[in-house]
Amino acid sequence: MRGRMLLCVLIVAALFGLGTQGSTQDIFASKRALDFHHYFNRYAHLDTGEYRMVIPAGTCSYASVGVRHWDDHTGTYKSALFTGENDTVEWRVYVEKEGLYNIALSYYPVPGRRSSIQREIHINGELPYEEAGFLEFHRVWGDGGPAQVDNQGNEIRPSQVEIPEWRTVLLSDSMGTYSIPLSFYLKQGWNTIALVSRREPMVIGQLEILSLTEYPSYAEVEAGYRAAGLSPTSGILIKIQGEDAVRRSSPSLFPLNDRSDPLVEPYHHTLIRLNTIGGERWSRPGDWIEWEFEVPESGLYKVAVKAKQHIKRGSYSSRRLLIDGRVPFKEGEAVQFPYSSRYEMVLFGDEESGAPYLVYLEKGKHTLRMENVLGELAEIVRATQESLYELNTIYRRIVMITSANPDPMRDYRLEERIPGLISALERQSRIIGDIAESLKAIIGESGAQVAVLEQLSRSLWLMADRPFTIPRRLAAFRDNAGALGTWILETREQPLQIDYIVVASPDVELPKTKPHVGQVMLHELRAFLSSFVYDYTLVGNVYSVEDFAVEPLRVWIGSGRDQAQILKLMIEDTFTPVTGIPVNLELINIGILLPATLAGRGPDVALGVQDTQPMDFALRGAAVDLTQFPDFPEVAERFHPSALVPYSFRGSVYGLPETQTFSMLFYRKDILSELGLEVPQTWDDVIKLIPDLNKDHMDFGLPYSGIAQASSGAIGEGSATVSVLAHGGVSTFLTLLFQRGEELYLGDGIATNLESESAVQAFTQWTELYELYDLPLWYDAANRFRMGEMPILVQDFGFYNFLQVFAPELRGEWDFTLIPGTKRDGIIDRSVPVSGPACMILSAAKNKEHAWEFVKWWTSTETQVRFGQELESILGPAARYASANLEAVSQLPWTVEEYQLLEEQRSWAKGVPNVPGAYMVGRHLDNAFRRVVYYNEPARDTLLDYNRVINEEITVKRQEFDLEVLTP
């Protein structure tokens, strides 16, 4: 209660700007769109009374061309409407009283790309507030069957399949920032409500307009029990295993193995037993898990959960409890699970008295759902997120005057040059301080979470109190704001791991959860001894020639264990049963591939190898030419022609692409709009844009090295699997070269094309961008984009995934588009180099036909789609798979607009050949760049000097492999 009162003070301060120095309107001229918090407070005083109106979907007043009647095979709705990814449906509704109303939607998730469904809602032709543009509707998932056991005795995680069913949900914030459903102001009389598609198709059954209601308290419900004469049951205990969940909102919420506790059910000290559910995967607000159970008699029952929240030290996780689809009473809206390093039995009841909250259940089957919510932390997160956006604005305005690296001895007179700066700093210091006090009251201690806020509050107060110290405190301010962004992400996460749930009579003693000393010692001893005999590199079933009467394929994969387990599950599901070819999958460090091959102990097939390796192996006779297989041309059509270039030489192809990545242009819509700048279409536009950014001490981001790329946080294949030629600054040079219509090499790589006039022009332009226009060579792309110091930059499109997940405060404030191009022959050439890891067949493979069958299966559309979907379902949107299979990409969960942009940029993709001596190209292009930029040497002469060295090495390598060489 104290925390809520403090938050009320915070909200009032935030709304009315209690301060000491004038208005802060100037500094916040770039205020973002209205959010639900302020929208709700604007209309909260209006009373609508009790109200409910049902609107059948088929009574719409407008429907776009793609909307059509849907024949409901369940018979639930007679006038259901199918809406695609580009559709809009609008209804006219009449209300007697103006005010705020909840809206419930009944929908059916038809097959799509397995991602959640997204829609916007417009009221009377307008988006009422920011959150209304990001509505999310979950699909329903379940196990594809019972867990299987491999021939090593380990349980195999069942695949997650969609369970389509009608669902009715109150529209709510997709990020879980609010503890109440979203509400919408409707004026008295006629109003229009429109749903606009953003991603994935769905069927709409009906809408309901509802007055705002609250759940009754337990005291009120308990009084109702007494009035109805309901009595507690006796002697009944029902245990619901967590892994037996029947429905879930995300395919990532699958059963897990936990062998850290000997009392986990079921248990094994070494082998995999799927015995829990949740954990870190169940961290996202809004995600839910549902179980079914049956009670033998009607009456009152208590509910308890054996769970472990061992990740958020000094805090708790919250869950909303729903019985048969309804919250039984107000206390069920946010059940708290405090931090504990081991499993605890958490009773759903009064914390002070220890008395359980009882729920009435009729004899028969019921459902119990637990939904991830922020609970009391919701307002904390919302207010902090709003403060972070304003702090970033303050920082950006200061940097516009001082630059990101100001002179600490200079007085910039910031308090005079930025109207409202001091009051803004004071105000944010108070708000952050109040948030810290509120958090301390909620979690009951002052730990690391509170310390971050208190440090930032103190820093802001010192900046406001001593404005002349702002320049020397600016770096700390930036770091603290970055830490606040991380704090928001960590606070939003609500992990919880469940062993089992107990539904029992009030008089039944709950099971013990703490193992005794003997159990722990025996567990540790057995686990230690088994570590000497268990081979952790092998994944799933391990076969010998006797099992199938054929030699098993030996496949190496160098990614993570999650990827390996997904692949093994798919092999057992759709490859081995169809082909009869057994596969032993081994998870290894792909760096040992070369020494293992030289030692004669390599695999038959290698997955995820660096895109230079197929050619390195092929030149030494260690890789198979895939064109020898008669159906190769058909397989090659799966990919963009550029994807095969790195693995091709003289008409032979030695590998197939797994993923394909390329650069896109990312930009902050809010900042460019504030500065009145347009997104550049050509490099000439970029050159014109740079001075406009520089005058406000902002930068255009163009990665010179892989360090800038890596610090973006983009989730990709990692630097170990991509060519040096296609990433970092060399990628920029190749972009400029390709956009001039030139190639990197002459012929089949007999020499470079760097002596051409176009190559010299491209190299000169590349170096001038850093030498004359002072683009930064080294930078943290993620933080500078987030803070607004670098509002536009070129990055691998994996940066999109990073921003979606790790910069939620920027939702709706950024976008991405095609990279700048070079105008040539009346068109803008946007050519861009591409790269990605490959799979290849080793020459030592015992059965090359079987290996080819596996490679074909692995790169097929069906396999790539499923792998990408499974990977994203396990690791989240940050791990979106960039498949090289063109048809597979179209089925991955991009929005229509995003997919169209990616495919348009892909149409300009250019592969980079890997030829003998190619390693010298990237190395010496970088050396030439450094000589020009660091030592001011002439671009043309420097490039030509290094080109001679490169060509000499190419000649040496070609002679080594008996290839013709360039004659002098």
Q: What's the CATH topology label of the largest domain? A: Jelly Rolls
Radius of gyration: 31 Å
> How would a textbook summarize the main sheet?
7 strands, antiparallel
Average pLDDT across residues?
Answer: 89
Low-confidence stretches: 1-26, 706-724
Q: Strand-residue fraction?
A: 15-25%
CATH homologous superfamily of the largest domain?
A: Galactose-binding domain-like
Q: Any guess at the CATH architecture of the largest domain?
A: Sandwich
* Helical/strand content category: alpha+beta
Model description:
The chain is of the alpha+beta class. The protein has 5 domains: 2-32 and 378-492, no CATH class; 49-211, Sandwich (Jelly Rolls); 218-374 and 495-520, Galactose-binding domain-like (Jelly Rolls, Sandwich), CATH 2.60.120.260; 538-658 and 837-891, Periplasmic binding protein-like II (D-Maltodextrin-Binding Protein, domain 2); 663-833, D-Maltodextrin-Binding Protein, domain 2 (3-Layer(aba) Sandwich), CATH 3.40.190.10. The chain is 34% helix and 22% strand. The strands form 12 sheets. Strands 1, 3, 4, 6, 13, 14 and 16 form a 7-stranded antiparallel β-sheet that branches. Strand 10 (148-149) and strand 11 form a beta hairpin. Helix 4 packs antiparallel against helix 6 (421-443), helix 11 packs antiparallel against helix 24 (861-875) and helix 19 (729-738) crosses helix 20. The chain is globular and about 105 Å long. The termini are far apart.
